[in-house]
Amino acid sequence: MESVSVRTAGSVALLAAAWLVIGNITHPIGSTEVYTDGVAFVGTTDTYWLVNHLLLGLSLLVTPWLVRLWTGGFKDPRARVLGHLAHPVAIIGTAIGIVHLAGIDGTALAAFRRLLDANPSEMTTAVVDGFQLLHLGTFTVWTMTFFGVLQVAMGAAMLLEGARPAWLGGLLMLCGVLGFGASFVSAGQGHLSTFSEGVLLRGSSVGLTIWLVWLAWVMRTRERVVLIESET
């Protein structure tokens, strides 16, 4: 790929990374009380909530693209195998993430708020409570794939390749463990909580965010683009 094309991809990725950072910082951390009360959960939405979730979902689309470009430079056979795993997992995780963020946590949640405001009946409240189960299901699968499997695979591949910066490979693996924790803890509790979202999910997102910003910056700024720098 020509350097100009890679720099263009880096510019697009930087824009996506910028919103992922802004969107996460401005996204309130849900409490256990909110996640166990359907009416309170629906009541958290507003116009910014909807726009933010739509843009977060859109921004995720660069992830499979960057994973493909990045892992294509691996030389170690074991690292290449893990790279071949990471790419389809990135596609699957991104697809589920868009459904969860833009479709369920954004659009559907806002629609349920309008429904509840227009018809605050016991039936509507029961439907809203049930909606949380759908939200929990997509959250569990998304965190398992996107924040768990993807980060562990990329981190292990980076360490096997001896790619620099070496600390990033270890960080990705550590954050991948937190991603699995967010998925399993939420599934075990039957709902999200202050701990599963505020600690496990937010902690697991650090690795992918740093990786995305770093790689996008490398692609955008280097005159001679080398996506993989290995230890000699």
Biggest sheet descriptor: none
**DSSP helix count?**
9
Oligomer: single chain
Structural class: mainly alpha
Mean pLDDT reading = 88
Rg for CA atoms: 19 Å
Count of strand segments = 0
Name the overall outline. elongated
Order of helices and strands: HHHHHHHHH
Query: What percentage of the residues does DSSP assign to strands (E)?
Result: under 5%
Could you list the spans in which at least 5 consecutive residues all have pLDDT below 50?
none
* Spatial separation of the terminal alpha carbons: 24 Å
* Helical content band: over 70%
Q: Which descriptors apply to this entry?
A:
9 helices, single chain, 232 residues, elongated, mainly alpha
Walk me through the structure:
82% of the residues lie in helices and 0% in strands. The chain is built from nine helices and no strands. It is elongated and about 60 Å long. The two termini are 24 Å apart. The relative contact order is 0.16. The model has no long low-confidence stretch (mean pLDDT 88).
Summarize the structure.
The chain has helices spanning 3-26, 32-35, 38-42, 47-59, 62-71, 77-118, 122-161, 166-189, 194-221. The chain has 232 residues and is mainly α.
Outline the secondary-structure elements.
Blueprint lengths: L2 H24 L5 H4 L2 H5 L4 H13 L2 H10 L5 H42 L3 H40 L4 H24 L4 H28 L11
